[in-house]
Specification:
411 residues; mainly alpha; 3-stranded antiparallel sheet; 3 strands
C-alpha cells in the first residue's frame, strides 16, 4: 500500500471510530434514548453505590451483587479522578478513553511489518454493534488491559504477565491469556502481580475476598446457553420462574441446578481440551499467543452459566488482536463474533422484554446469538489445533539449531 493509500485508510479508520463513538456517548449521556431498558442504571445506581462504600475503605460486605476480585475496586473508584464531573458521566468518559486506548494499541500494532489494520477495524466495528452497554460497564477497561498484555507478550513477557495479573485481579478472565504463553517469565510475573495485589487489598480493606461466597445460590442466567433449555421448557408448562437474582435475571426452579452443573461440566471439558492442546501443540508462531487466548475465552464464555452482553466486549477485543496478525486463522471466528455482537444488542437491551417472556422473538434471538458463539468456538478451536498441532505433525524433524532456539524461547 502506498503512503497516500495508507493515510486514507487510517483516515477512514479514525473517522469511523470517532463518528460511532460520538453516537455511543450521545446515548449514554441520554441526548438520545436507546431502545429497551436503561443500560446506564448499573453505573448510576449499582456502581455508584459500591463507590460510596469503597471510598470508606471497605468492600461491600453485605451486598451479594459484589462478585468481583478485589482490584475491581480500582475500576469502580476511577471516576474520582474526574472529580469535576458527576460519577456516571465521569465513568462514561473513562470508558470512552479505555476504548480509545484499545484503538491506539491496535493501530500501532497493525502498522508493524507482517501485521494488519484488520484488527483495529474489528474493534471499530464491533464496539458500536453492542450499543451503549459497552460504555456502561467496566469490561471495556479490563479489555484494554488484556489487549495491551497480548500485544506485549512476544517481546515483553514480564510486562504481559504483570498486566495479566492485574487483569485477573479485576475480573478473573484475563488469566486465560496465559494459555498460549511459552515463556515462564510471563507466568511468574502474572503470579507475582496477582499475589501482590491480593495481599495489598487484603491488608488495606476488609472483605477483599467476600465475593467468593456470594454466588453459592445462583441460578442460570436467562441469556446463557443452558437457559435455552428453560426457554423451551416454559412453552410446555415448566413451573420455574424468572427473577432478578444476584444482580442478573435468572431462571430459578426445578432442574436449574442440574443445568448449572452441566454448564460447569462443559467448562471442565473446555479446560481439558485446552490442556490437551497445550500438551500436543508443537508449532508456536507470533500469532499463536493471541489465537489461543481468543479460543480459551470463547470456550469459557460460551459454556458459562452467565453470558452477559458485556462479555462480548472481551471477545471483540481478543478477536481484534488476532486479526492484527496477517497469518492468523481466526478471520471466520472473528466474523462470527461480530455477527453475535449485533444479535446481542437486539436481545439486550432492544428486545429484552421478549427474552424475559420467552416468546418466539426472544427465544429466536437467543438461539441465533448462542448458536453463533458455539459455531465460533468450534471453528476457532479447530483452526488453532490445525495451525499448531496438525501443522507440527507435518513439519520435518527440527535441527539442533532449531532445538536450541526453542529451548531459549521456553526459558
Amino acid at each position: 500500500m502506498d503512503i497516500a493509500g495508507g493515510r486514507r485508510s487510517l483516515g477512514w479508520l479514525l473517522g469511523t471510530w470517532g463518528l460511532t463513538r460520538l453516537v455511543l456517548l450521545l446515548f449514554v449521556f441520554k441526548v438520545f434514548v436507546f431502545p429497551g431498558p436503561d443500560v446506564t442504571s448499573d453505573v448510576s445506581v449499582i456502581y455508584q453505590g459500591w463507590f460510596e462504600v469503597l471510598r470508606t475503605g471497605t468492600f461491600p460486605l453485605d451486598d451479594v451483587t459484589w462478585q468481583y476480585p478485589p482490584a475491581a475496586a480500582l475500576a469502580i473508584l476511577s471516576p474520582a479522578l474526574l472529580f469535576f464531573l458527576d460519577y456516571a458521566n465521569a465513568f462514561f468518559v473513562l470508558a470512552f478513553l479505555a476504548d480509545l486506548a484499545v484503538l491506539t494499541l491496535l493501530r500501532y500494532a497493525g502498522l508493524r511489518p507482517g501485521r494488519s489494520l484488520r484488527g483495529a477495524w474489528v474493534w471499530v466495528a464491533g464496539v458500536p454493534l453492542l450499543g451503549p452497554t459497552v460504555y456502561a460497564r467496566y469490561d471495556v477497561m479490563v479489555t484494554a488491559v488484556a489487549v495491551a498484555a497480548l500485544l506485549a507478550g512476544a517481546r515483553h513477557p514480564r510486562v504481559m504477565g504483570a498486566l495479566v495479573g492485574l487483569g485477573a485481579m479485576v475480573k478473573v478472565w484475563p488469566v486465560l491469556l496465559l494459555v498460549g504463553a511459552l515463556k515462564r517469565r510471563a507466568w511468574a510475573a502474572a503470579g507475582v502481580a496477582a499475589v501482590a495485589l491480593a495481599a495489598l487489598f487484603a491488608a488495606a480493606m476488609p472483605g477483599a475476598f467476600a465475593f467468593l461466597t456470594f454466588q453459592r445460590d445462583r441460578g442460570t442466567e436467562i441469556e446463557s446457553l443452558g437457559a435455552l433449555v428453560f426457554h423451551v421448557a416454559r412453552q410446555f408448562g415448566w413451573s420455574g420462574e424468572v427473577l432478578l437474582n444476584y444482580g442478573s435475571v435468572e431462571f430459578l426452579g426445578p432442574y436449574v441446578s442440574l443445568v448449572s452443573t452441566a454448564a460447569l461440566a462443559l467448562t471442565g471439558l473446555a479446560f481439558g481440551w485446552l490442556l490437551l492442546w497445550r500438551l500436543m501443540a508443537g508449532r508456536f508462531v507470533t500469532h499463536t499467543l493471541a489465537d489461543a487466548a481468543f479460543v480459551a475465552v470463547l470456550m469459557f464464555t460460551t459454556t458459562s452459566r452467565v453470558i452477559s452482553p458485556q462479555y462480548m466486549v472481551w471477545l471483540v477485543g481478543l478477536a481484534a488482536v488476532c486479526l492484527c496478525f496477517r497469518a492468523s486463522p481466526m478471520r471466520l471466528p472473528a466474523g462470527l463474533v461480530l455477527a453475535a455482537s449485533f444479535v446481542t444488542v437486539l436481545e439486550f437491551p432492544v428486545f429484552f422484554a421478549h427474552v424475559v417472556a420467552s416468546d418466539t422473538l426472544g427465544v429466536t434471538l437467543l438461539f441465533v446469538r448462542n448458536g453463533l458463539l458455539v459455531i465460533a468456538t468450534v471453528v476457532a478451536a479447530r483452526a488453532l489445533w490445525r495451525s499448531t498441532v496438525s501443522a507440527a505433525d507435518a513439519m520435518p524433524l527440527p535441527t539442533q539449531a532449531t532445538r536450541t532456539k526453542e529451548a531459549s524461547l521456553r526459558s
